[in-house]
Prior knowledge:
The protein is α+β, with helices and mostly antiparallel strands. Helix content is about 30%, strand content about 40%.
Amino acid sequence: MKKWALLLMLITVLAGCTMFNRSYQLGTESAIAKDWDKAVEYFEIASLKDPKNSVYRLALLRAKISAAYAHLQKARKFRAQGKKEESLEEYEKALFYDPDNMAIIQEIQRYTEESTKEAAAEREEVKPIEPTVKLDFKAEKVQLSFKQEVSLRSIFMALGKHAGINIIFDDQFRDKPYAVELDDMSFEQSINILCMAANAFYRIIDENTILVLQDNPQNRLKYEINAVKTFYLSNINAQEIVSALVPILRTPTRAPTIYADKNMNSVTIRDSPEVVELAEKVIRLWDKPRGEVVLDLELMEVSRVKLRDFGIGLDAYSGSIKYSVPSSDGTDTEEGAGWIGLGDISFGKENFQVSFPSGFLKFLESDADTKYIAQPRLRGIEGQDIEYMVGDRIPIPRTTFSPFAGGGVATQPITNFEFENVGIEIKIKPTIHFEKEVSLELDVKIMAVGGTGYADIPIISSRQIKNVIRLKDGETHLLAGLLKDEERKTKKGFAWLNGIPIIGDLFSNTDHQVTQTDVVMTITPHIIRMVPLTEKDDEALWINLQTELSGASEGRAARSAQEDPFDLLQRERDEAVRQLREEQQDQSDRLNLVPANFEGGVGRNFRMSVNLRSGQQIRNMSFVVNFSPQILKLNQVVVGNYIQQFDKEPSIMQSIDNASGSCSIGFTSPDISKGFKGSGRVATLVFECIAPGETVISISGVSANSDTGDFVNFETDQAQVRIR
Length: 724
């Protein structure tokens, strides 16, 4: 009895070993060893060999869930250790094994957003541009009080003596009486206040010397320190932001110099340190990675074809009659086929053969269902098209005619083949909103072969839908109802007989085919990454409060932080009004361009006037007008009313050099002992816009003498020109 029981157990074990294949056994061993990646691999092989085995499918599902949990634990461990790349790799493996687990997807989103925000915060930290030469002054606070109006130059000198700094002045510096109290201020704050009062700025010469200059465009261009910095962009196109940066960084005195490198995707800016720092802040706000989404699509096309074919059918709907001459043995002769001797012609019944089509009965009826299913997972960047196509490409012939020789008639056919898509073609453009919603611009095309036309060329039928939908993260949208019903009925039979009611069905064959097609699509968006925004992105950039008049940024920025912004703006506005009134009362000698700003299109002509104002009698004058020859062309110089006011015709000199972008203009009074005092237009320059861009028209090399022979110093300005 024991022998039989042992034999039965052995048979049971052997039967169990043969019941499950080798891959399932290896997968079970890997699962016991906690090697879930190998377990999933073996269970997948077992399921492919026997897809209907529920044990294999259940083991595969259990192994995938366990593998996803194991990789999720590893990802959290690497995350705690600060290993970003390793943790993201483990997160991707966990999502691969369990793609529908929303907890894993949300955890990846949170970690990605945190990492992106940290990286963005590091990139947005703008380091101030430090000057190469710094002043070495005494650190003690300034205690100077000038309650009575004294010379502004002497106040500068007293401040420099207190701080141990040598202060020198430009020839154009305008001194005036001023009263001020500099109590408990640093040297930078004090020098900035004085420069603001004098409408001046300063340039650091060395550690112990500064140069104070009158604030005008010429001095800014000549003495202001410029900084050059290159910004390497990661997420935006360098050439696209140049046109947007120019109006933001443009100042009343000049436009910034910006160069975009398409190969390196970088932007190089040359301007004052304050403008370069502002440009860096703006670029950091713009250069952010776009959001990414994952789209889960499910496509199903259901096609049903019903066919019914019944009636009497013939192999051919035609007959034939043949004439032949029989041989001596009663068969048709083959020799000389197609040729009959005149003596052998006979019209007897034995010389004719008649053939009739064979008929048969049809009783065919069929009903076929077809389903096509696709489940792609697509990942893309917002604002970019995501395209997906499932189907075939069929050739379509295109025939054109061309002549055999030049100038001849187009009679030679040339056939080319163009491949057309047949199937389901989907194009999606996602847009991510900050409310964690996704707008999808859908374009769905369903192309199918609807039959054949002339010369068996395929006829392509199409169904298309275009719309825009907005879904929440993880929300599913169902698109259905793209129905197509096609019914064909063909009746063949004997002529005249098939048209007889009731009886005609006995002499005909009817082919009835009904085709029904429907397409169902579901789409579910998942936001993987949004545009990283920090608290600094919501802060405004105070341009006017942080732009320095003197070239030293720390003094005014520190003082502006302690004052109310609106009070400071009011004070600056009052100061600007006061300076404007002083300039109106000032009778200094000036040579300026009118208009100061011009904007126009390519091919347009415009006029620029050179106006002179002087409180002295000007006997002779010469100057040079500079412009960009790549953008502008000077066509003509018209003498103004200022020169025409002399009693006699003066000596006039003008020389236009469009190659170098300059024009020399000069005049001399006919009476060397007399000149002209007042204001007027010296000349009118007629320019032509030849290329788009921005440039500056300036005046340089001014040389003038009064009626007494003394040299007269003229102030000049420049004009901004922008050509579209």
